[in-house]
Amino acid sequence: MELRDYIAIRRAYNLVRQTYPRRSRMTFAEFAILCHMYLFDGSLNTTEIAKYQNVLRPTMTHRTKHLSGLGLIERTRGDNDHRHILCSVTDEGRAFVQDICEQVCAILRQGDALRRIEWERACRYIEAMGSLDLKASDLVLLGIMGSEEGTTVSSLVDALGLLQPTVSMSVSALMNAGMIDRGRDGARRLATVSLTQKGRSTGEELCQGIDELLVRRK
């Protein structure tokens, strides 16, 4: 997968997510789980889903409980081993996947990247992207990497579809980690951010992970 396509879909999802009430919002990782289960079209236990996202089972238990609380998946105990929790998509969850993916496509069609994509294809993109667990700070790092030298926080907000406080906190965390430097655009009198060598090396590693993502065909 190309970096520009990854950023475009993450941005579109972030913008769609903000239109929902705070209590019913879900992270990109959680929505990717829903897409994964929709495409699998059967029951999966939490261990299998955790393996898909390369996270520990307690993390997956937390994520699936949230999806279950929203009525999008059903969690039941296995017949042979009650320690195993089986998850399946509800009818409401299936309708939700289509609705969100259609909204994502509507935003994508406003730009150049993936502008002809249909909702089912978007679902497969998101499912593939869900196997790479990138946080907001990772997305900001990639946003800086994919922009012109000396980008601003407001430019990152527009490019990534994240809220301004989220971008600002991520910038501070990246600065503390030695991955970005602050500067100033003298002409516009705006604060800017740019990658350090450490930040660029980390960004290249993230890009390699994105390059290796494979979007399954129907």
Helix content: 55-70%
Our estimate of the beta-strand percent is 5-15%
Instruction: Give me the Rg, rounded.
Output: 18 Å
Averaged pLDDT: 91
CATH homologous superfamily placement of the largest domain: Winged helix-like DNA-binding domain superfamily/Winged helix DNA-binding domain
The largest β sheet comes out as: 3 strands, antiparallel
Order of helices and strands: HHEHHEEHHHHHEEH
Strand arrangement within the widest β-sheet reads 1-3-2
Q: What does the overall shape look like?
A: globular
- What is the class of the largest domain in the CATH system? Mainly Alpha
* Structural category: mainly alpha
The number of helical segments is 10
Number of domains: 2
How far is the first residue's CA from the last residue's CA?
17 Å
CATH architectural name of the largest domain: Orthogonal Bundle
β-strand number: 5
Runs in which pLDDT lies below 50 for 5 or more consecutive residues are none
